[in-house]
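Lab notebook, bench 4. Still working through the backlog of constructs that have no structural model yet. Next entry is a single chain of 287 residues. Request: give me the structure tokens for it.
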Amino acid sequence: MPKTIVTHFHPDLDAIMSAWLLVRFDQSQFGDAQFAFCSAGQTYRGEEVDSDPDTVHVDTGMGRYDHHMPGGEKTCAARLVFQSLQAAGYIDEDDSALRAMSDFAYEIDTFADCYWPEAEHPRYAFMLHEIIPALHALQIHDNEAVLRAGFLYLDGVYQFLKNTRHAKEAIQEADREGQTFDSPWGRGIYVTSSAGDVSKVAQKMGYGIVIIYDPIKKYMKIKTAPKVKFSLRSLYDKIVELEPLDMWIYHPSGHIVLNGSDKGPKKPTELSIEDILGLIGKIEQKS
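Model written out:
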């Protein structure tokens, strides 16, 4: 018999993340869970909270996963679920992505986003904690539909944070190995990794140009930071002197040269990173 996860009507980010954590990381018990909703602070069918082992309340009911008890610690439901799953061994101690997510839920639940830089900027309309109440206000999606939409979003957030961690580790390793270089586009680094988001993470770390070789998919990507004004056209022209045009893509922005991507696979290049570095060494920036 599937277990039931109960939360309040119009579930917010804290409630949705709490349920998501149970479903995704304790699948033996909650992988096929069904959902029920009640008034905030109440319990399912008025039952005593935590009295039924097949019914778990999150962010309501004053039970083990509710943080609204008078005099209780400063926390949130998602953080309580996270800590419980970690203590039970369902979440690794070093899972910094999930820790960051539960910390974010607490930040939003305590309205700390009111003090974010440019707190009224429209960019925040794209964030889940703002989207959720807007979906409820539309009144065309029921509670469970909004909750499940939140699950999809949280799956993406979790994967993004893991990708970022792996990318940063790959970049730091490349830096330790001396895989940096000077170029007309600024300080550069070359990284051999299948991690996603390597180029963006490297750009955020201050690199002007990044060369990435994916050893699994055999793609090579060369990207420059958005504020770099010198285009990659001269490098692309030198590359296609050595390999066919249809093996490489020059992006009209001037910031990207690709040999294949998930958006459009290409025949793998036979050029090595050392070959690309040699071509870069022959390029002089023109004003």
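Notes after review: Residues 71 and 282 are 68 Å apart (CA to CA). DSSP finds nine helices and nine strands in the chain. Flag for follow-up if needed.
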